[in-house]
């Protein structure tokens, strides 16, 4: 089944439509103002969606993103088996959507399959992105898979394992000063013919108009696996692309008649930043905030996006902020149940534990975005250890410290 | 559907049978000799396997290991969504079974779901393992998930990201000298009531008798996804548990009448070790070899197992060895197609590229075991980078070096 995508439309005014091609990667040229750049989204011929798209089908049907091809832009770039991640049930019944089970071990693969597909379909000569880690490596992987060169603008201070990750797929990796990044991205687009798969706008985040469509598949998978809508979903939130995409997926399920209402969506931002919380508090469409110290480097964004506001309004949701200590507690709780995530990835569970209702009427899902290998503490020198003596007392002391002596 | 497991039997003599419980974790007490310790395997009531187990079923059926419960020992420990990994097709048509898509990002999760289940079902007080990385972290994750304490004996010289990984799940991590490991493991078993999920024998590897059963599911998944048997399978090989398990899975498919013959199985060991190649060359049931320098630390084993010999004989396969340079070339080839694996994980593709027939009559599958985050070079200080100047010439130079300038 091929894509039913029809047009791009402005989030600021749904009446403002643009053709599907080329992807408008710098926000809506009609509705954006000096104050707020407005993202575009993709619209579809919803009346032509197959009625059985969300019902059970046999195991020989396409898996991952291909399963949802009618409700995605054309998947012109080859995939790596992204999507189809498990819902793992914690001991108290909360579900964790484990997005570390994607091809580059984060949710970003869903976005990049779609955004790199857009680049391939529109004849781009390469891919350019700026990223603190997961997004850049994922973009590089999908570019490599599609046979396109890739330029990444990254922080020179990435955690050591993440630095290796960003360079793994053969991209040109650049650690220029932050203020030079967007001008150089734009030049890479205009002079080299590359397509940007992260935001080129300064005053508010817009990003690739097709990218968040990939995140809709998280909502589809949750609905298909639970057999119903969850009551609430908690997500780590930086620029709000994940939040927007997942919310849009649930909204489409309602629009298509498969469920009665959208789950409450909770955006979980680091307390050290919180651009969406600030926008909601002040009634603006997007906000800029100072960023304080935090180890949640994947989501400590200084600018927000109108996408986040749209998602929270559509779902009667809320913007929550969580401290590093709350995220660390959530990360440790997940590890104690066999799931190792990076600090930012635990923001969803942290939001639930710090602010969540104990009495949600239905399943509660926390989206966990990326593996512990990307944590800022991973592979730092103080996590190394030296040799220990080989006697039984050493074993007993270590076992006792870990709480493993029989009672 | 519940498990159809019936007994444990010796690989050395199938007539030598033991009850299914308790798991005999130190090899067969009847058939083992001073020269070779023989592993046990699990037997099943094959005449009671449902006829439709391997045919397509709807998407609401159990996923991952649960799908194959009749042909596994009882899955008494809770899972983390292991298994169900994708087959990714390289540009030349070779398939890569991407085992980095498991809960702790390696194939070991299939083994540990089964082995920790055996520990839970037999009333163990904890889990003990020795490991260079993936196996230990996976054992710790499944122990945590099951609420059991875990003791890991690991190298003090693990790569820095792997050191963080081994400690992530709350296990007691011990870096005692190598010669002290097995005596201390045995004492942990006898004095603390823990169950060993890695080998306790010195003269040949035996390991947990239930563990390799988990690897059978790789064969089942490949068969179900391709809709036929592959012609050949290339696997990274250390102690041969993966090789044995996958081969057993294919053998069962033939036994159950779903296919005519078992694929040729190719064991790919580092040239710096190669215990299985040595056993095959000398006609022995297991060999010990000196281990030379290699970065393939996940599979540089000094002792082999009779499991490997059994698997190669059952499949008319062969033991291949690959150099670090051949593994590095295979790792780079995979990364250039969007797949980042650790060096050891690329041994399968390296074996195919170095020794494989170009004319296999049917699909060829390489099993790739674990993510690039575990590579010995990952997060090493020489992979770090500093700031760069923010001018266009810096971008152009980097793009040119990466081969990304439009021609």
Automatic annotation (TrEMBL), chains A, B:
Q: Which residues form the Tryptophan synthase beta chain-like PALP domain?
A: 80-369
Q: Tell me yes or no: is Coiled coil among this UniProt entry's keywords.
A: no
- What are its cofactors? pyridoxal 5'-phosphate
Name the record gives this protein = Pyridoxal-phosphate dependent enzyme
Q: Which residues cross the membrane?
A: none
Q: Does the keyword Lyase apply?
A: yes
User: Which keywords appear in this protein's UniProt record, sorted alphabetically?
Assistant: Lyase, Pyridoxal phosphate
Pfam families for this protein: PALP (PF00291)
């Amino acid at each position: 089944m091929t894509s039913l995508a029809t047009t791009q439309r402005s989030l600021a005014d749904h009446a403002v439509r643009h053709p599907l091609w080329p992807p408008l990667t710098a926000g809506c040229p009609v509705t954006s103002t000096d104050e707020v750049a407005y993202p575009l989204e993709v619209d579809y011929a919803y009346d032509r969606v197959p009625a059985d798209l969300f019902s059970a089908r046999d195991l020989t049907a396409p898996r991952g993103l291909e399963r949802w091809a009618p409700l995605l832009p054309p998947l012109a770039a080859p995939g790596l088996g992204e999507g189809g991640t498990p819902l793992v049930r914690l001991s108290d019944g909360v579900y964790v959507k484990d997005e570390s089970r994607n091809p580059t071990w984060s949710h970003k693969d869903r976005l990049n399959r779609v955004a790199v597909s857009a680049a391939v379909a529109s004849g781009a000569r390469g891919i350019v992105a700026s990223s603190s880690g997961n997004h850049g490596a994922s973009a590089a992987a999908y570019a490599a898979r599609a046979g396109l060169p890739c330029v990444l603008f990254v922080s020179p201070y990435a955690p050591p394992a993440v630095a290796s990750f960003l360079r793994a797929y053969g991209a040109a990796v650049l650690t220029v000063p932050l203020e030079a990044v967007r001008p150089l991205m734009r030049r890479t687009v205009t002079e080299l013919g590359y397509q940007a798969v992260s935001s080129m706008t300064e005053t508010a985040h817009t990003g690739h108009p097709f990218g968040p469509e990939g995140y809709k598949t998280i909502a589809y998978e949750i609905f298909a696996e639970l057999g119903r809508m969850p009551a609430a979903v908690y997500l780590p939130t930086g620029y709000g692309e994940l939040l927007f995409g997942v919310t849009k997926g649930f909204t489409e399920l309602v629009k298509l008649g498969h469920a009665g209402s959208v789950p409450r969506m909770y955006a979980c931002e680091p307390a050290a930043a919180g651009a969406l919380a600030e926008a909601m508090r002040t009634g603006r469409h997007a906000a800029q905030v100072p960023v304080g110290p935090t180890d949640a480097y994947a989501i400590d964004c200084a600018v927000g996006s109108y996408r986040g506001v749209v998602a929270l309004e559509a779902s009667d949701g809320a913007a929550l902020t969580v401290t590093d200590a709350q995220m660390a507690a959530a990360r440790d709780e997940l590890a104690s149940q066999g799931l190792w995530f990076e600090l930012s990835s635990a923001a969803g569970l942290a939001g639930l534990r710090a602010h969540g209702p104990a009495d949600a009427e239905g399943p509660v899902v926390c989206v966990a975005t990326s593996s512990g290998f990307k944590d800022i503490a991973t592979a730092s020198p103080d996590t190394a250890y030296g040799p220990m003596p080989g006697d039984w007392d050493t074993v007993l002391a270590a076992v006792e410290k870990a709480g493993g002596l029989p009672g």
